[in-house]
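Troubleshooting log. The previous structure file for this entry was overwritten by mistake, so regenerating from the original sequence record. Sequence copied from the archived sheet and checked twice against the printout by T.R.
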Amino acid sequence: FFDLGGNSLLAARMVARACRHFDCDLDLSETITAPTIAMLASRLRPGNRSDTGPIRGLRGDPVPMSSPQERIFYLWSLGTESSLYNVCSALDIEGSVDATYLRMALDQLVRRHEILRTTFDIKASGGVQEVHAQGSIPLVVDDCPIEQFESVTKREAERAFDLRSGPCIRARLMRAGPTRTRLVITQHHLL
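Regenerated output below.
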């Protein structure tokens, strides 16, 4: 594949199409370990899609903070009620959102991405990131007049996180009747 001009983007596209077409799992690294179409085809098992497990880092616990992370953590520790490093995103959705399915999707994100289960602290060795085995993204679901979407979003963005106890991300689903919904995701910049 690569000898014929293929590159990593084309390989990723090919793997995604094969997985969709054959309803199976195929790792991108297999384009290297099985460099011919015949070898890749032998690894396809149609209908054999596994439950994707957590994405794990290749390191031990606890993980040292980077220098920029230590600086941000130090500034946070001086005034723990600060929302200066909060990153807030709002998505307006036409239609209703099933909160049960949203909760399931958020749980899968947390299960797969260890950074979403990470808290921060200072130990004798310096600043560390502590990756927890389990975690969740708090989700508040409420009815809210559309006129209040902006003010509630602003309050969410200004609410501080406790970086030591976590979680360092949260979600709010606001419903203005059956057809207007806003999803607000707020996280600390350290994530």
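The mean pLDDT is 85. Archived copy saved in two places this time.
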